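anyone seen this seq b4? input:
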Amino acid sequence: MKVIFGIGNPGKNYEHTRHNIGFQILDSFVEKYKLQFVPSKSEYWKAESIIDSSAFILIKPTTYVNNSGLIFLELIEKYNLSAEDILVVVDDINLDLGKLRIRKSGGDGGHNGLKSIIYNIESNNFPRIRVGITNPTEDENLSDYVLSNFTNKETEIINNNSSLIIKLIENFIIGGTSQMLNLYSEVKNLSDKET
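predicted toks r here
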């Protein structure tokens, strides 16, 4: 079984903020497959299904970004998973808006959600899709910036890329990190040739 773990903050106030892009991508995935998030007995919402006989669970923690690692660890223990079975979808201020970076392991990049996961499981060996939200300007406070809403134009850019992200998640569910990375390489090479 595979788990797709969105990073974000719970509640309507944060729904369309930059920090919640992980939740937004999972919401798009749920919409495509006509699934529904339901509350669990713990501090997260979940949606479960199967693609090509491969079971998966989508997870949206309700612990806030800084405590994402508590739920990540709980999922490993509850479902007897390895960290490599859990794909994290997270925002990244160091990437241009909508740009992707996929890794099978790595540091936290200054992101408190990733920092919490690495701290709680004592490892950085878990795959992640980082979605660019761009850096704030010099006169913008970082905390205020990541908790601000996307503009309509920015939302359009994110929506245009969400189908690729969903495709990458589907490949992770069916074939794991290596299949997801292979698709990402193909798309990236094609994109590089076109530019």
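The chain has a mean pLDDT of 94. The two ends are 38 Å apart (CA to CA). kinda curious what u guys think
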